[in-house]
Batch of 2 targets.
Target 1
Amino acid sequence: MIRIRTIANTMPTVDELHTMLGKRGLPTDGRKAELEQRLNKAERRENKRARTTVNSVADEWLCPITRELPADPVLAEDRKIYERAAITKWLGEKRSSPTTGAAMGTRLVSAPQVRNTIEKLVESGLVDADKTAAWKKKIEDEQLLKKVRREADQGDTKAMHILGLVHKNGEKGLAPDVKQARDWFERATELGHVAAMAIFGQYLLQGVGGPAVPALGSSTPDAPRSAARIWPRTCSGRHS
């Protein structure tokens, strides 16, 4: 982690000031207040340079589609790094590079080293606030999604319903996947979750995510269309 020391939160002695200024090739004459002011200016310049450097590195990892730091970075066949959900959705609609426009296949390779680098850049505190906030929100959603999935695997029908909506709409960092959505709605339906039952009935009627079975389908207009309404606010939050 990069740390920028400033004299604002330290009380260096005159000898320490002489040493720190000397290392920077700056004059060491004058009273202590003058030395502190000289060092403070130097450190502000260094801080600014460090921020510029770190943000330049961070910009190299911005997803070309979302223009945000990816939480789940993958390497595509055009040798560019993308947010997995964004490039998966893109390649589901067209087989070309978002960057060059050239024809491109669908093979994606996870890039954990890029994720680790981005995490260290964010932790440095030097990345611009807008980039940091968006990335942290995606990481929070990722952690919540894991929690919801664990609860669904343990038989929680509300969690199953949420996962169905997330996959249906491509929310919380996931690309739309109606087959996965149908599977979760079906599991929740088998355990008696009414809202999931309504959506699963629509899927059976329309053949969404699998074969149509009109005889078993039904339609209910009151089913939530998005996980946003029932998504837990924190990792300790409960589903409504």
Target 2
Amino acid sequence: MSQFDNDSTKFMKYNANLNNYYYFTGGLSIEDINKLTKQLYDELSNNQKNESNISKNESNQSDQPISSTISEKLMEGNVSGIIDKTYRDSKIHWLPKNDAWNWLYAKIGTFAYKANETMWQFDISFMNENIQYTEYEASYSGKYDWHLDFGPGVTSLRKIAIVVQLSDPADYEGGNLQFYTNRHITDAPKEQGTVICFPTYFLHRVSPLTKGKRRSLVLWVSGNPFR
């Protein structure tokens, strides 16, 4: 007896859209972005009061000193532990799962859950990796060439990738998050605060920066391996 004998639509339970992405305009507010920037600055400065405390006068000025300090303390982006700047040239820092960052994990995770319910209905159950803060700068033509976000080991559990646009698009040129699907290249939205969710099997890249600096967050939501 065939498994289809009683129900010919057995494997058509969901009306999922498996070849598209989902985004939330203004997912993070300017206040959220300023908060995480200051928090990251404090963390990278080892919470030394003499380094991390900013006077009221300074806080009303340009945030360039904070941005420069953050950039100086980041590590080189790598691919499976290998640094290859012809393929990926970026600076990163991993945000730990702790009380200080719980607000950010919770907020981003909520967007991923909503996107999954709307688009894919994947079997997701946890966020077992830390948020990656990433910078790309035009001074070194920052980029990340075409790649997928899942593979062997722990990455085989990744289902949904999340990218948060932290920079004002007027502050940089190039640096487009792009997807290659159905033989077409699609640019993801660049508006500051936009939260973009997509399946980890999407071929995607960050095109080379030609001006300024692009800042973003990346996180993955995981579950049982695709099957």
